[in-house]
Amino acid sequence: MGTILVYSERDDLAYELISQARRFQAVRGRSVAAALLGDPGDRAADFFAYGADRVFAANHPTLTGLRPEPVSAALAQIADSANADTVLVDSTRRGKELAPRLAQKLGAGCVTDAVAVRWENEWRADRSALGGNTVATDRIVSPRAVIAVMPKVFERGAKEARSGEVAQAPVTADAPPVRVVETRPKGGAGTSLDDAEIVIGIGRGFAKQEDLALAQALAEALGGEVGCSRTLATDFHWLGEDRMIGLSGKRLKPRLYLAIGISGQIQHTVGITGAKLIAAINSDKEAPIFEMADYGIVGDLYQVVPALTAKVRK
Ligand SMILES: Cc1cc2nc3c(=O)[nH]c(=O)nc-3n(C[C@H](O)[C@H](O)[C@H](O)COP(=O)(O)OP(=O)(O)OC[C@H]3O[C@@H](n4cnc5c(N)ncnc54)[C@H](O)[C@@H]3O)c2cc1C
């Protein structure tokens, strides 16, 4: 065994994982391999540039889309071909479906939702526990490990002038037990929150769904995206779950995070600790969000937000 294998169905996340695998190379002495499933196009060039020593490609119709079974089977075969003792995948919803299936096939220990990973004569991974109130460190004591890492935990490294040969992985794909009948784009507008430089986070301080237009107007004026607390996504269903920030949602690293009508419970704020600047608008001056905000306005959002939007538009 001597390889760290990386896989993500999203290339941007694969670059983060490859960059980190390369850093682990120094302490763990393993080569870095990346799995490229589906249409390879010219994607392998970037995998090499971010640090992969080898790229294993497998292109089969069953290996794309919502199919964790064939994807985990293919990755297990690639892990064996690559002589991998460690597999890093992303801890998105898909990644979390994939990781335990892959670990079972490899007889590996598995951790998902990792927010930090280190090698200390064994893999150790930190993850939030007890509803986000503490951080638990999981140890993987088995010879093989599958670790699903939250997006943005690892910094994407700089590209280097490296290249390599793509190996065609000898993957045998069985017919998947689940047949995808139809796929449809998710409803709801807006681009992804993940890369937004400015994020307006909105919470229960908004009394009615129609009032979210106030936040949308401010986001448009600032060139930002709207995200929300769990209350608005899963309790009220005013925004999709892809907009939810926090322990059960996204972890973001925007330049500016503006929390409006959000109390700042730990389960929410774990999603914004990477923000460069945090500002908050809340009518309660004791709201916990002010403890971590760089700037705060104590006031009624129904007065502050339209005034702020008008000011930005000027
Ligand atoms: C296991 C677990 C996982 C969780 N995961 C997440 C997660 O990923 N993300 C998440 O967000 N939450 C999560 N939660 C829920 C979390 O604990 C909080 O309940 C939630 O974040 C609160 O949402 P909120 O701030 O919108 O609402 P509240 O806590 O109700 O806060 C509303 C705020 O709005 C202010 N306000 C009210 N009216 C106005 C006004 N007119 N103008 C200005 N301010 C006003 C109030 O002062 C208050 O501070 C999780 C909880 C658990 C147990």
Compact summary:
With 314 residues, this protein is of the alpha/beta class. The chain has 9 helices and 15 strands. The strands form 3 sheets. It has a 7-stranded parallel beta sheet, with helices on both faces. A 5-stranded parallel beta sheet has the order 12-11-13-14-15.
How would you describe this protein?
The protein is of the alpha/beta class and 314 residues long. The protein folds into 2 domains: 3-168, Rossmann fold, CATH 3.40.50.620; 198-313, Rossmann fold. It is 29% helix and 25% strand. It has 9 helices and 15 strands. The chain has helices spanning 11-28, 44-50, 68-81, 93-106, 212-222, 230-235, 266-269, 289-292, 301-313, and strands spanning 3-7, 31-37, 54-58, 84-90, 109-114, 116-119, 123-129, 134-140, 145-149, 166-168, 198-202, 225-228, 256-260, 277-282, 295-298. Strands 5-9-4-1-2-3-10 form a 7-stranded parallel sheet, with helices on both faces. Strands 12-11-13-14-15 form a 5-stranded parallel sheet. The model has no long low-confidence stretch (mean pLDDT 92). Residues 131-132, 203-205, 229-231, 244-249, 261-263, 265, 267-268, 281-284, 287, 300-302 line the site of flavin-adenine dinucleotide.
